[in-house]
């Protein structure tokens, strides 16, 4: 088996028309495929570059959102989600475009973390200023469905020194 990339990630939306407007007009992702499902639902695909798509299901009788369980409740203070949930989707962008992306989202009234976040290996995991230890810079926002999104730009290639933590084990309670 040879995985060559992500084909698509399928999420669930509360309103397909609202979702189409957001992804085509604000994020400028072309709508490339629509499917009418036999149960009355819909399944739409947006081109997110590199041969990958972001897809959405919609059903008229879908269960409501569950922030803090199935999605991030409030970033960054309450960012944990349940096992098996999807925490967020990160799209690659050029680092030089991050500030313009942030401004575009803010101008469109999108709920957005108000600054570009510099991720590094410090104790807090973030830095106020860009420095050689920053490995990715990000803009965080939520879509109309409350799904947390990230526009991310790696600032350097990863090497062997970037893998230095042992994986943790879950604590099993009796």
Distance between the termini: 38 Å
Number of DSSP strand runs? 9
- Helicity, as a percent range: 10-25%
Calculate the mean pLDDT score and round it.
91
Element pattern in H and E: EHEEEEHEEEE
Radius of gyration: 18 Å
Shape: globular
Alpha-beta classification: alpha+beta
CATH superfamily of the largest domain: 2,3-Dihydroxybiphenyl 1,2-Dioxygenase, domain 1
The helix count comes to: 2
CATH topology tier name of the largest domain? 2,3-Dihydroxybiphenyl 1,2-Dioxygenase, domain 1
Strand fraction equals 25-35%
The total domain count is 2
What is the CATH class name of the largest domain? Alpha Beta
Point out poorly predicted stretches. Answer: none
Biggest sheet statistics: 5 strands, mixed
Query: What's the CATH architecture name of the largest domain?
Result: Roll
In what order do the strands lie side by side in the largest sheet?
5-9-8-6-7
